[in-house]
TrEMBL record:
InterPro entries per the UniProt record, alphabetical: Class-I_Pyr_Nuc-Dis_Oxidored, FAD/NAD-bd_sf, FAD/NAD-binding_dom, FAD/NAD-linked_Rdtase_dimer_sf, Lipoamide_DH, Pyr_nuc-diS_OxRdtase, Pyr_nucl-diS_OxRdtase_dimer, Pyr_OxRdtase_I_AS
Comment on bound cofactor: Binds 1 FAD per subunit.
Note from the entry: The active site is a redox-active disulfide bond.
Protein name, as recorded: Dihydrolipoyl dehydrogenase
Gene3D superfamilies named among the record's database cross-references: 3.30.390.30, FAD/NAD(P)-binding domain (3.50.50.60)
Family: Belongs to the class-I pyridine nucleotide-disulfide oxidoreductase family.
Top EC class of this enzyme: oxidoreductase
Length: 468
C-alpha cells in the first residue's frame, strides 16, 4: 500500500494549492480528485469560465453600444455566435486545468482519480470509474471537497430550463427572459452575461437589496447601474414556487406586502448560494464531525475533530471564495511543516466581476455602526478621474472608512472600472495597518483608476480630495 505524509481530497484551489505547498516543504503528497480534470469548481464551473463569458459578452456589448462613440464603425450587424463563445470559454478552462496537471507533475505530487472516502483516520479508499478501489495510507489528510450549488426545497432543478450556475455556463441559446433567483455575486455576474447577449433579465431577491453582505452604498450604486443597463429587480420578494410548463418557466413570489407576483420566462437560474459538499467522504469513519449545516467543524488551526485531519475552503466556515481556500491550503501545509502561519480573515477581499466591478475589504459601514466604532469616511467618484473620462467608464466610487481617532483604515469599498484589481492596494495597506493619510501621501500614477483610492484617502483624512 502506498504511504504518504499527506493526502488531499479534492483538487480545487484549496486542495491543489495545499498539495503544491506540502510538496514544496518536502512532504510526500497525494491528491485525490473524483473528476477527470483537476481544479475543482473554480477552474471548471466557477471563477474561470464565468470570467471568460463576462469578458466575451463585454466585448460584444462594447461593439454594439460603445464603439460608435469611440469613432469605430462596423459595417453590418454585430452578432453573437453563442456556440463559439462557449467553446472559447471551454478552451480557457481546458488550458487552465491542464496547467494544474503540469504543476502536480512538476512538484512530484501523485494524482489519484476517483472518489476518496475514509476507511479510518489514516487510510483512504479511492473508488475509481471502473469500480475498482485503491487504498492509500496517509499520516495527515486535508479535506478540500468544496461545495455544490444549493437550491430551495420546493424547486425541482431540471437542469434544462430550471438551472444552476453550472448549466448557465454552457447554454445552447440566449434566453429570451432569464429569471434569476438570488441577487448575490453568481446571479448578478451570469445575469449580466446574458443581459449583454440580448436576454431580458429579472433578478428576484428575498432581501431588500442585492449583494446584501457588502456595504450598503455598493448595493445601491450597483443596483442603479444595472437598472440603467435594463436589468429588472424584484427586491424583498419571497419565491414560493418555480414551475416549468413546456418551454415556459413560471416563478411565483410574495412581495413585501404579501401579494403574489408572477414572473414568466424561458429560463430560471437558481443562484441562492452553495452548500458544503461531503457526500461519499465517509467522514464518520475517521471521527471527523460535520455540523448541522453540513460544514466540517474545524478549530483555529483548521484541524477537524480528528487530530491528523484538516479541512479547508468551501467545505468549512467562512466566505466561499477561491483565494480564501488557497490561503487555508497554504496555512495547513505550513503548520504541518512546523511553521506558524496566520490568516487575517478580515482582510480577505470580496469581488463582484460585473462591469463596473465591485470590490471590498475590511469592515462595512453597517458593521462599524453596529460595533459602535467611531469612524470617518472619504469617498471619491470615478467620474472625476481623467482615466475614467478617457475610457468612458464613469460609474462608481471609492469609499474609505478610517478610525476617527487613529486614522487607521478599517474598510475600503469600491465600485468602478478595474476595481477587482484596485482592491489589492487596499489589502496591502490594511495588512500594514496603514492610515488614510499614509495612502493619501503615496504617489499614484496618472492617469489611472487607482487615483480614486488616493483621492478617497485624501477625502477621509481631512476632506482634502483634490479633484472634486
Ligand atoms: P472546489 O473548488 O469546490 O473543489 C472541490 C473538489 O473536490 C472538486 O473538484 C470535487 O470534485 C472534489 N471532491 C469532492 N468530494 C470528493 C471526494 N470524496 N473525492 C475526490 N474528490 C472530491 N470564487 C472567487 O474567489 N472568485 C470568483 O470569481 C468566483 N466565481 C465563481 C463563479 C461561480 C459560477 C461559482 C459557482 C463559484 C465561484 N467562486 C468564485 C467560488 C469558488 O469557485 C469556490 O470558492 C472555490 O472553488 C472553493 O474551492 P475549494 O478548493 O474549497 O473547493
Amino acid at each position: 500500500m502506498s504511504q504518504y505524509d499527506v493526502a488531499i481530497i479534492g483538487s480545487g484551489p484549496g486542495g491543489y494549492v495545499a498539495a503544491i505547498r506540502c510538496a514544496q516543504l518536502g512532504m510526500k503528497t497525494a491528491i485525490i480528485e473524483k473528476y477527470s480534470t483537476l481544479g475543482g469548481t473554480c477552474l471548471n464551473v466557477g471563477c474561470i469560465p464565468s470570467k471568460a463569458l463576462l469578458d466575451s459578452s463585454h466585448h460584444f456589448e462594447d461593439a454594439v453600444k460603445h464603439f460608435d462613440a469611440h469613432g469605430i464603425e462596423i459595417s453590418g450587424e454585430v452578432k453573437v455566435d453563442l456556440e463559439k463563445m462557449i467553446a472559447r470559454k471551454q478552451g480557457v478552462v481546458d488550458q487552465t486545468t491542464k496547467g494544474i496537471e503540469f504543476l502536480m507533475d512538476k512538484n512530484k505530487i501523485e494524482v489519484f482519480e476517483g472518489v476518496g472516502s475514509f476507511k479510518d483516520a489514516t487510510h483512504i479508499n479511492i473508488k475509481k470509474a471502473d469500480e475498482s478501489t485503491d487504498t492509500i495510507e496517509a499520516k495527515n489528510t486535508i479535506i478540500a471537497t468544496g461545495s455544490k450549488p444549493s437550491t430551495l426545497p420546493f424547486i425541482k432543478l431540471d437542469k434544462e430550463k430550471i438551472i444552476t450556475s453550472t448549466e448557465a455556463l454552457k447554454l445552447k441559446e440566449v434566453p429570451k427572459h432569464l429569471i434569476i433567483i438570488g441577487g448575490g455575486v453568481i446571479g448578478l455576474e451570469l445575469g449580466q452575461v446574458y443581459k449583454r447577449l440580448g436576454a431580458d433579465v429579472t433578478v428576484v431577491e428575498y432581501m431588500d437589496r442585492i449583494i446584501p453582505t457588502m456595504d450598503g452604498a455598493l448595493s445601491k450604486e450597483l443596483t442603479k447601474v444595472l437598472k440603467k443597463q435594463k436589468v429588472k429587480f424584484a427586491l424583498s420578494h419571497k419565491v414560493k414556487s418555480v414551475e416549468r410548463i413546456g418551454d415556459e418557466v413560471i416563478v411565483k413570489a410574495d412581495d413585501k406586502k404579501g401579494q403574489e407576483v408572477e414572473f414568466k420566462g424561458d429560463y430560471c437560474l437558481v443562484a441562492v448560494g452553495r452548500r458544503p459538499f461531503t457526500e461519499g467522504l465517509n467522514a464518520e469513519a475517521a471521527g471527523v464531525k460535520i455540523d448541522e449545516r453540513g460544514k466540517i467543524e474545524v478549530n483555529d488551526h483548521l484541524q477537524t475533530s480528528a487530530s491528523n485531519i484538516y479541512a479547508i475552503g468551501d467545505v468549512i466556515r467562512g466566505a466561499m471564495l477561491a483565494h480564501k481556500a488557497e490561503e487555508e491550503g497554504t496555512l495547513v501545509a505550513e503548520q504541518l511543516a512546523g511553521q506558524k502561519p496566520h490568516i487575517d480573515y478580515n482582510l480577505i477581499p470580496g469581488v463582484v466581476y460585473t462591469w463596473p466591478e465591485v470590490a471590498a475589504v475590511g469592515k462595512t459601514e453597517e458593521e462599524l455602526k453596529e460595533a459602535g466604532v467611531a469612524y470617518k469616511s472619504g469617498q471619491f467618484p470615478m467620474r472625476a478621474l481623467g482615466r475614467s473620462r478617457a475610457s468612458m467608464d464613469l460609474d462608481g466610487f471609492v469609499k474609505i472608512l478610517a478610525d476617527k481617532e487613529t486614522d487607521e483604515v478599517l474598510g475600503v469599498h469600491m465600485i468602478g472600472a478595474r476595481c477587482a484589481d484596485l482592491i489589492a492596494e487596499a489589502v496591502t495597506a490594511m495588512e500594514f495597518r496603514a492610515s488614510a493619510e499614509d495612502i493619501s501621501r503615496m504617489s499614484h500614477a496618472h492617469p489611472t483608476f487607482a487615483e480614486a483610492v488616493k483621492e478617497a484617502a485624501l477625502a477621509a483624512t481631512e476632506d482634502r480630495a483634490l479633484h472634486v
